[in-house]
Write a structure and sequence with these properties.
elongated; mainly alpha; Serine Threonine Protein Phosphatase 5, Tetratricopeptide repeat; about 0% strand
Length: about 160
């Protein structure tokens, strides 16, 4: 449960920083000191409430999580990609016909490709024109990424 607290706290910080971008939702202001004082006699209830809040945040902000994931890929920001994944984003959500894995390969973002594969991104989804992701990586000269894709079973 400690992880939920740190994920929620860092997510609120990140959402406040990026709240003026299209597709992001700024969470209502919440001071954790006030919140923890409310539940100071019952730590389990406190943690349960944080987990419930995280769940509600994820349910209400699927579009924001999608934007967070794509922003992380487009800006080569692995931390943002990891946060979106931790918060439950659909890791194979498409944008303009490409999956996050396709975009990370195209951007030559080895670290992000690895993060996506470690989190079970579907490497069988074909790239534009029915090219396999491995075929695409090889075609555009991403040898190191192609080797990584093969390690995860891409054909």
């Amino acid at each position: 449960a400690e992880n939920y607290i740190s994920v929620l706290e860092s997510s609120i910080t990140e959402m406040k920083k990026t709240g003026n971008r299209p597709g992001y939702t700024v969470l209502p202001k919440l001071t954790f000191q006030t919140f923890s004082e409310k539940f100071e006699n019952d730590l389990i209830e406190y943690k349960a409430e944080l987990i419930k809040m995280e769940s509600e945040f994820v349910d209400e902000n699927k579009v924001s999580l999608h934007s967070m994931l794509w922003e992380g890929i487009n800006t080569s920001n692995p931390k943002l990609v990891k946060k979106a994944i931790k918060l439950g984003v659909d890791i194979d959500s498409k944008q303009c016909g490409s999956t996050p894995l396709h975009a990370a390969v195209q951007k030559d973002s080895y670290e992000i490709v690895k993060i996506l594969l470690e989190n079970k991104a579907d490497h069988t989804i074909p790239h534009h024109g029915n090219t396999s992701i491995l075929g695409y990586a090889k075609a555009i000269g991403r040898k190191k990424i192609a080797t990584l894709l093969e390690k995860y079973g891409a054909k």
